[in-house]
Prior knowledge:
The chain crosses the membrane at residues 20-40. The protein is mainly alpha-helical. The chain has one helix spanning 4-40. The chain has one helix and no strands. 0% of the residues are buried.
Amino acid sequence: MAGEGDMQAHEQTYNSVINLLKYGAVICFLIAFFVIWLIAG
């Protein structure tokens, strides 16, 4: 199994990736909404 140091590094990387995906999803939603608004207008 992984040592404690490896697990701590893994958790930090995991949290960084999850935060990136959350913010990326929000940004993609906003861009898509803006494009739809431009097309509809």
